[in-house]
Amino acid sequence: MTGRRSAADALETRAAILRRAADVASVEGLDGVTIGRLAADLQMSKSGVIGHFGTKEQLQLAALDYAAERFRVRVWEPVHHLRPGLERLLGVCASWTAHAAAPEFVGGCFIAATSYEWDGRPGSVHDALAAVTDRWRRTLAGEIKRAIAAGDLAADLNPDALVFSLESLAAGINPARQLHGDTEADTWALRAMHTLLGVPAPTVAATAS
Amino acid sequence: MTGRRSAADALETRAAILRRAADVASVEGLDGVTIGRLAADLQMSKSGVIGHFGTKEQLQLAALDYAAERFRVRVWEPVHHLRPGLERLLGVCASWTAHAAAPEFVGGCFIAATSYEWDGRPGSVHDALAAVTDRWRRTLAGEIKRAIAAGDLAADLNPDALVFSLESLAAGINPARQLHGDTEADTWALRAMHTLLGVPAPTVAATAS
DNA sequence: CCTACCGATCGGTAGG
DNA sequence: CCTACCGATCGGTAGG
Prior knowledge:
Two copies of one chain form a homodimer. The first copy, chain A, is an all-alpha fold. Chain A contains nine helices and no strands. The longest helix of chain A has 26 residues. The termini of chain A are far apart. Chain A binds a DNA duplex through α1, α2 and α3. Chains A, B: GO terms for molecular function: DNA binding. Chains A, B: Pfam families: TetR_C_13, TetR_N.
């Protein structure tokens, strides 16, 4: 029950710490993730927690990586097999808004919460967050450009502006639900995305994930 | 230089504390507003800071009130004289996005930052934030309904969905600028607002505030 | 408005 | 992975 355990056990412990850290951060931000709190929640000592990461900042970066991977699994993986261009783009919009409406972390989307929390601060967390969201932006912009090239979207659309708008609408689902009880916010966001893309409104049962 | 001063002096000190608190919160969130930090920044003692408010929570609520009033002055006051309905609604969109692109607090829009920080937490700050943003939502919904009733906007638009979308786009300007250097994010947001409202794109020099 | 202080918690380390 | 500990900072109070 006590003392050192195997490397596999250590990896399991590490994963449990990151899951808990992501849950806490989704509610109270990455600032709310304190070593002592994680230790108490997981019934470990503080040194047992921080030993996996070295410093709190490394723990925060690891939690961000973990959340980014979960985002990829929940939003990108269900649609990456779709045809590149408009079809996959609309699939992303559907899985993205569904992801925000039924979040896996208790406080909602980790990436959205952290982006608005950390955008004005300097440091490695800011930079890692910019890198993660930038990668996602380039994926989206790529789909949009493919759809334009294929003639499925209007040629005068601005891909960067569209990426910004899709991102803002998806992120807005979080506070709309938790501050105002807007249970339909994901539907509104998805419709607005379609309007901005200039395509017909989504059908009701488009997503079932 | 020391000891008690007049009631007018006390009010000035109080205002200086709130300004500083709003600046700090716009960068690091309301959690970053600590009594000791404000005291150091303003060259006061901690008891001198907290004496104006009683508790940290009361200080946070006062900072929120202060920021809400500044938002009203910067976004609503410049356009409240316009004709109710579409004209005033479009004026709000312009002053709102301009406000986000040239924020008065160092870290950007206090209301946006705090909404995404505090939406998942319980307590009086959450409730006050919901009340403040709800008031703003009702103002916006009122303008939209007036514009629809006047025939200036399509009758099949959903006012609640539009309010959600306008809010999300305005709030998104903050992280777009600070995380990705999108200096045009305010222009993109304003264009998207017009598209969702179903009105022509804004003219370039619509706002000069 | 100040000094001086309280118990609690912070991130982190030493040593095992 | 633990206990035991470090200096710093937290919100807040007593007393003036």
